[in-house]
Amino acid sequence: MSEAAVGRRRRQGWAALCASAILFSLGVGLDQSQAIRQFRDPPVTATLTTGERQVVDGVAYEMTSLIHARALPADEGSRDRYPGGMVSAMAGAELVLVVLTVERLDPARDPEMVFCTVTLEDSAGRRWVTDGTVDYVVARPPGISCVGGPEEPAKLGESFEVGWVFQVPAEVVDDLRVRARLSGGEGTYQLEFRPR
Amino acid sequence: MIPPHRQRTTISAVSTVVVALALVAVMAATARDTTVAPRSWNHIGVGETGTIRDLSLTVTDARATGTLDLHGTPFTSSAALVVVQADVAATVDATYLGQVWLTTSDGRRYDPRDEWTSAQPPIPAQPGFTVTGSWVFEVPPDGLDGAELVVDNDGAEFDWYDVGLRVRLGLDDGAIEQQMLPLPEGSVRVTS
């Protein structure tokens, strides 16, 4: 092999090495950004409607109801503070109460590590979180999170209800779906519930 | 005696190392400050609306005073108390307005005083609602010239290039009002 050919081979070798290094770096970067994006907003695992049940990571979830109204009944401890015992939304808004039924089915699933974050989303992609000014005063089921009641986690096979209260502009109430981001098990998942 | 092809290989390897070291030295010398995420800024003034990823903001008034009403009691400062009143609307997600500060022309940064949290725009601001309120900053009187309100998107797990807002407050004459300014509570209304 001539010296020129050896030189060309060597240059090609370096070029291939550099290209591989660049491709590897890009791959790692892409993988990292996807991992971050998936953690923040995991892909929707299943789309369900009211009354449909889905088991995710050993826990069953079902949207029992989605109620929206100008005013909802206050809970027992707050009833005296609201006229007629009703908590009202501000002008132009409505309150939305979302109730899920949760049941841990897999004994391997840690009862204290059943996490869910519930948000509302409209068809334009706008998202709402629970409203702290009404979330703790509207009457809701006794469950305080997807773990269970205020005192201790729910037992295996014991289903319970948990609710969240939102305040949204009145014009979007018929265009809402519920997103439940689930974590604490083997992965992070997202269920979408569309009210009937 | 080293054969010529060996000499060339050695020269090539040494050159590669030298170039790599030079590259590292140049990168180290010109590296940006990694403690500060890169930003470009939308510059607006009082009365103008600026929109960034998380929110849309209008500063409706900016005043400097020496005395404020702190829950019915006068609060007097030998510095300037800058009261910035604003309307904020969330664009897509709820925003917690955690990245708001005042900066002076010499680059010093002042966070909002927390005695008047109830006067601030209530958080989170959610889509379809507009929150209204005031932030209060305490700055040296000579810091009013060129003072700007800086508003950035809420922090996330990964902070990289983004666009923020800088609102020129128009306090360049350095005048400090003497009368006590009341601070109404922050409020929310539906705007969609």
Structure, explained:
- The complex is a heterodimer of chains A (196) and B (192).
- With 196 residues, chain A is α+β, with helices and mostly antiparallel strands.
- Chain A is 21% helix and 37% strand.
- Chain A has two domains: 1-40; 45-194, Immunoglobulin-like, CATH 2.60.40.
- Chain A has helices at residues 3-40, 132-135, and strands at residues 44-49, 53-56, 59-69, 71-73, 86-88, 93-104, 115-122, 127-128, 160-169, 176-183, 189-194.
- In chain A, strand 7 (115-122) and strand 8 form a beta hairpin.
- In chain B, the strands form two sheets. Chain B has a five-stranded mixed beta sheet, with no helix packed on it. A five-stranded antiparallel beta sheet of chain B has the order 2-3-4-7-10, with no helix packed on it.
- Chain B is elongated, with a radius of gyration of 25 Å.
- The chains are: A alpha+beta (196), B mainly beta (192).
SSE blueprint:
The complex is a heterodimer of chains A (196) and B (192).
Chain A: H1 3-40, E1 44-49, E2 53-56, E3 59-69, E4 71-73, E5 86-88, E6 93-104, E7 115-122, E8 127-128, H2 132-135, E9 160-169, E10 176-183, E11 189-194
Parallel strand pairs in A: 1-11
Antiparallel strand pairs in A: 2-3, 3-6, 4-5, 6-9, 7-8, 7-10, 10-11
Chain B: H1 4-30, E1 39-45, E2 49-51, E3 55-70, E4 73-90, E5 100-103, E6 109-110, E7 129-139, E8 148-151, E9 162-168, E10 187-190
Parallel strand pairs in B: 1-9
Antiparallel strand pairs in B: 2-3, 3-4, 4-7, 5-6, 5-8, 7-10, 8-9
Mean pLDDT of chain B, nearest integer?
Answer: 91
Task: Describe the sheet with the most strands of chain A.
Answer: 5 strands, mixed
- Main beta sheet strand tally, sense and closure of chain B: 5 strands, mixed
**Overall pLDDT confidence of chain A:** 92
Q: Rough shape of chain A?
A: elongated
Q: Assign the structural class of chain A, choosing from mainly alpha, mainly beta, alpha/beta, alpha+beta, or little secondary structure.
A: alpha+beta
